[in-house]
Design goal:
With 201 residues, the protein is mainly α. Helix content is 92%, strand content 0%. The chain has a domain of 127 residues. The chain is rod-shaped and about 135 Å long.
């Protein structure tokens, strides 16, 4: 007589059935974790790309600004060199004027000797006094004008040296200062020409 293990078979079937009906929780959790991790990575990647784009824009802006400052610095260096040369020329002209004054004094003395030999001392004294007054007036004007020109050029040079990164307002001041220097030095040249005419006459 053969016995059938009914009880054991039923138990095994129940276990298999329970395992089949049980939801696959570990797989669902793993998928959920992968999805969260992927989302975080995407967000981090997006943030990194946005940060790189911003830094690139900032870098480009700085490069452009640096280029502008380099051009401006070269321009200021050129202007400084030109103004320094003009200052040296003006100081040389001042020395020339001083030499012309010495020549004028010598000429006055020579004329006095010539007129004295002719015997017309009264006329000599009067003419020499008038001539000396004209020369002295012209020479004084030239020296004063050249001094003003030199002082203006020195102020301009100091401005170039002391102002590394000028603002728009400072550039306006520079333009006005440059015009002032030009006007003062033009007046000095005109006074110098007037003195030369007086000496030649």
């Amino acid at each position: 007589m053969t016995s059938t293990p009914t009880h054991e078979t039923d138990t095994q079937d129940a276990v298999v059935s329970a395992q089949a009906e049980k939801p696959p929780r570990p797989r669902t959790r793993a998928r959920h974790r992968r999805w969260v991790l992927l989302s975080v990575l995407v967000l981090l990647l997006g943030g990194a790309v946005a940060g790189d784009a911003y830094l690139w824009q900032v870098s480009e802006a700085w490069i452009e600004r640096d280029g502008q400052w380099q051009v401006h610095a070269r321009s200021l260096t050129t202007s400084l060199g030109e103004t320094t040369t003009e200052l040296q020329d003006t100081m040389a002209e001042l020395e020339v004027v001083r030499g012309q004054l010495d020549q004028a004094q010598t000429r006055i003395s020579d004329l006095a000797d010539e007129k004295a030999q002719l015997g017309d001392e009264h006329a000599v004294v009067r003419q020499l006094a008038e001539y000396q007054e004209r020369v002295q007036t012209a020479a004084t004007a030239v020296v004063a004008a050249l001094d003003s020109c030199i002082a203006s050029q020195q102020r301009l040079i100091r401005w170039y040296r002391d102002t590394e990164e000028p603002t728009d307002e400072q550039l306006v001041v520079l333009a006005e200062l440059g015009e002032s220097v030009g006007a003062v030095c033009t007046a000095a040249q005109e006074a110098k020409d007037a003195l030369a005419e007086e000496l030649d006459g």
